[in-house]
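Input chain follows. Return structure tokens only.
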Amino acid sequence: MPTGGSGLWGPDDEDSVWEAAIDLFLLNRGNAYDALACLFGVRNSFGFRPLAEGRGLVDNASDGLRGEFAAYGGPHDVHGTTWLTWAELDTTDWQETGASGTRSRASTAGTDTDWGRVWSAVRILSEVHEAENVRLVVWFH
């Protein structure tokens, strides 16, 4: 379950907290397994070097995100829990290919795929909150 978040007010502010910004299901249609493999290492029969695999639930997740994670059954009922910042995505080599050498990251999860709307929303959040303060937190059930 993808969720975009943002550290409001910046990391140096005493009132800085992470808040869930949007459920990315609203922006992304379907289960493109090649993209999930490329990004998160889920069902990675495509041979991609995942950008963020197996990191678990981020330590400083918001209470709302923790509640949503628990509602899906938490670590016992979900798999592939991980997270990825916009700073990491922004420096990704989108021309890197999977093991076959025929599918690039851009062709599976780039701006011209269903993930393009997600990247637009996350980029806009990063303009407000800075790239390292915006992240995707995902899990699968």
